Fold each of these.
Amino acid sequence: MSSNFVHVEFAAEDPKAASEFYAALFGWKIEAAPDMDYVMFDVEPGPGGGFPKADGETYKKGDVIVYVSTDDIEATLAKVEELGGKTLLPKTEIPNMGWFAFFSDPTGNRVGLFKSLNE
């Protein structure tokens, strides 16, 4: 099972403004996904990430979430529960990209899981 960091998200009330700040600060390449109200960034050599809209529910202002790749989200979430963690968001589809989920570890850290459609 792979377990690399594959994506980082910075929740923002204004994803466009946040992306402009980081592009100016670090020179990150920015790409908007307006159909998702989401802005992505590319960092060489990676991982890249995005700026989700802080909605107060799934994403709260100031959240920073790292995503770890997994070959099997359901199996990973089962192991999370077995080890004392908690599933926060079950496997959820990202159209034309793959799937993601959130869990918290026993100390309360929220972490994302990601499975690519192409793997």
Amino acid sequence: MMSDQKFITQKEADDVEMGAQFAPKFDSAGLITCIVRDVETGEIVMVAHMNEDALAKTIATRIATYWSRSRAKLWVKGETSGHTQHVERLQVDCDQDVLLMSVRTDGTGANCHTGRKSCFYRDIALGGSPADATLSITGSDPLFDPKKVYK
């Protein structure tokens, strides 16, 4: 993360909850959770994290940029796959520690690295033992072969 602060620091709860100033609350790792949904269908397609730089870049460019925790670097969605997410709307929750972003995705519209429209393509069986819980595929089939895209 760059040392120049891009956003104001949170102050009084009333200002955070009712004020007009955006003051995102980053966690102890310097990240804020971002829930991403398709602007046309409203379907939740992924959850990612942003650091201060990723959030600032997303706001400035309207192109979804995240912080990759596994690679420890900024990640512009679609830079490898061509499935760029164009930000149509960005919202923040009441205490400004979670973002909700509505996007329009280029290419096939896949948002998941598995090639599917959404990362949420499996349901967990409920009502039994947690140790025996199973998964069933309920979402779309892959729209591309990830092995060919992510070499």
Amino acid sequence: MLAGRGRVNVGMPIHEWIDEATDGSNIRVIPVDKQIAEYAGRLPDIHGDPMDRIIIATSLLQEATLVTKDHWIRQYPDLKTLWE
């Protein structure tokens, strides 16, 4: 969205940037499925942004550490976060 609005310039079409950023790396692209969407909707009402809630739900379901400086995201119980 930021690239589409001109707030971030990645120097190429966004789909190419995503491919370049993830191909051959340890980054896994996880599609938003029904389980993630439902879990995001059931999260405690700490953070109201729907996209952040999807990120939180994905991290919790994948048992992954989420790198974020967002104070509200870090308030979710059982969510492993990292920011130094």
Amino acid sequence: MQHTLVALVEDKPGVLNRVASLFRRRAYNIESLTVGHTEQPGISRMTIVVDNDQTNIAHVVSNLYKLVNTIQVTDLGETPTVERDLAMIKVCADNNNRTSIMQLVDVFRARIVDVANDSLIVEITGVEEKINSFVDVLKPFGILEMVRTGIVAMARGNNSPMNYHANGNGNGYKAN
């Protein structure tokens, strides 16, 4: 089983390295790590997916809070969430199989983002299981290359655990 953590951190050089080092030192495996800017200038959001069976989540959260640049860590394990992953897949496509691939793209609500004489690049967004299923049906055609973003997640509804406002206490933000 996987567990999703969301960490708000200061957008400064070296923060990602410190988080990755924390996991390395404690021999925790990161299944997925996605980092990006937030609506707040100077704040980045990390979505970290770890294997729940081999990781003590409370211990991970506690250790993340020990890092200087960590503002807030939220465990989305019990929270209703919307999760998405994005993949781009380059698949062999010739005159014989191009139509079949295009039909699969429609069925999975993916989209073709590049067409070449011998290949297609397909973009698909959705939950991890949907993307895994799409990859499985494309394998017989020959996958030439694939890249995935990793999971991003957000709590559903208005009661987001990641609400902030300026407070002037040194780090500039405080949980509501």
